[in-house]
Amino acid sequence: MKIKAIFQKTYTKYIWIAILLLIWEMIATFSNVSPLVFPSLEQIAGALIDSIVTGEILWQMLFSLSLILVGLVIGMVLAFLMSSLALLSPVFESFVDTCVSIFHPLPGIALLPLIILWIGTGSKAILFIIVHSVLWPMILNMKAGFKSIPAVYKKIGQNYQFSKLEIIFKIYVPASLPYFIAGLKIGWARAWRATISAEMIFGASGGIGGIGWYIFNKRVFMDTAGIFAGLFMIIFVGILVEDFFFNKIEANTINKWGMS
C-alpha cells in the first residue's frame, strides 16, 4: 500500500526519467554504437545549449507552439459549436455523427496532397492539418460529456426557466468539464503530431519552419545530437504543459469541485 502511494506521486515521473537517462548514458558510453547513431547525453546537451544560445531552437519552438495554440483554439471553438448544435437538434446531431465517422479515422497527413493543391504549403496548410487533427476527438469527448449528464440537471434548468443556451452554458458545460479537459489533452497531443509531420514536409513555411523543420534539417546534415536536442525540447515542453497547465486546471476545477 505504501509503495503504491509512493508511485502515485507526481515526482516519481522525474525519478523514472532520471533512470532512463542514466541507462541512455551507460549505453552510449559502454557500447560500441557510433555517436552518429546514438549520441551521449553530453553531446545532446551541447547541441541543445548551442541551439538555445543562438536562439534557433527557441524561435522554431515558439513558431510551432503559436501554430498549435491557434489550431487548438479554432478546433475547440468549432467542436463546441458543433457539439452544442448537435445537442439542440437531432438533425444536426445526425450530420455531426456522420462527419465524425468520415473524418475522425482519416489522418491529417493523408490529406496533404489535397491541402497542397487547395491551400499551398504555408502556415495556413499546417493550421488546417492541426484543426483537422484536434476537431474530431474533441467533438467525441464533448458529446460524451453532454450525454453523461443526468436528465435531472436539465429539468432543474428548465424549472429555473433557463433558455436552451443558458442550459448549455450554465449546466452542460460545467457538468461535463472532465470530458472537456480530457478532449483538450487529446487535442494537444494530436496537434503536436500533426504539426511535426506537416513541418517536416512543408519546410520553412512562414520564413521559420518550426521545430519539425529544425529536426528534419538536423537529419539532412547528419547532426544526430541536434535531432535528439529537438526531440528532448518537445518532450520537455510536453511535460511542462502537462504538469503546470493541465494538472493545475484539474486541481482547481475537477478535483476542487469533487468531479473526479
UniProtKB/TrEMBL annotation:
> Which positions make up the signal peptide?
none
PROSITE patterns cross-referenced by the UniProt entry: ABC_TM1 (PS50928)
Positions in coiled-coil regions: none
Supply the source organism for this entry.
Answer: Acetobacterium woodii (strain ATCC 29683 / DSM 1030 / JCM 2381 / KCTC 1655 / WB1)
Q: Which domain of life is it from?
A: Bacteria
InterPro entries tied to this protein: MetI-like, MetI-like_sf
* Location in the cell: Cell membrane
The entry's family comment says:
Belongs to the binding-protein-dependent transport system permease family.
Tell me which Pfam families the record gives: BPD_transp_1
| GO cellular component terms listed in the entry, alphabetical order | plasma membrane
Instruction: Could you list this entry's UniProt keywords, alphabetically sorted.
Output: Cell membrane, Membrane, Transmembrane, Transmembrane helix, Transport
Primary localisation category: membrane
What is this organism's lineage? Answer: Bacteria, Bacillati, Bacillota, Clostridia, Eubacteriales
Q: What sequence ranges are listed for the domain ABC transmembrane type-1?
A: 57-246
Provide the topology term for how it sits in the membrane.
Multi-pass membrane protein
Q: Which SUPFAM superfamilies match?
A: MetI-like
Q: What is this protein called?
A: Nitrate/sulfonate/bicarbonate ABC transport system permease protein SsuC1
Q: Which GO terms describe its biological process?
A: transmembrane transport
Give TM regions: 14-37, 57-88, 100-119, 125-146, 167-188, 194-216, 228-246
